[in-house]
Amino acid sequence: NRDAPPLVCAVKREGAAGATERLSLTFRALRDARWTALLIEGEEKLALARKAMKGADIAELPVRGVLNDAPSPVEIWWTA
Q1: What does the pLDDT look like over 46-66, one tens digit per residue?
Q2: What is the predicted pLDDT for the residue at 1?
Q3: Pairing label, strands 37-41, 21-25
Q4: What's the CA gap between 78 and 43, in Å, rounded?
Q5: What is the distance of C-alpha 64 from the center of its chain?
Q6: What is the DSSP letter of 16?
Q7: Which runs of consecutive H residues, i.e. helices, occur in the chain?
Q8: pTM for the whole structure
């Protein structure tokens, strides 16, 4: 459907770790996925993921939209 919101968008983040230009899945794509994994690295990101799971304000932490609205539990994969 040409009128449906996109599933992927181009993102440019100057100073981002890794590639500054990349493709990103939209909230619609993440929300509608049959399986979702959140990949995080480091203690700081782990603490942030834990904080996100305890709250509901998406404006504060946008990842909450996926954590709260996914059709199945989000698997969190963490590495130090």
Answers
A1: 999 999 999 889 999 988 988
A2: 67
A3: unpaired
A4: 9
A5: 8
A6: -
A7: 27-32, 43-54, 63-69
A8: 0.69
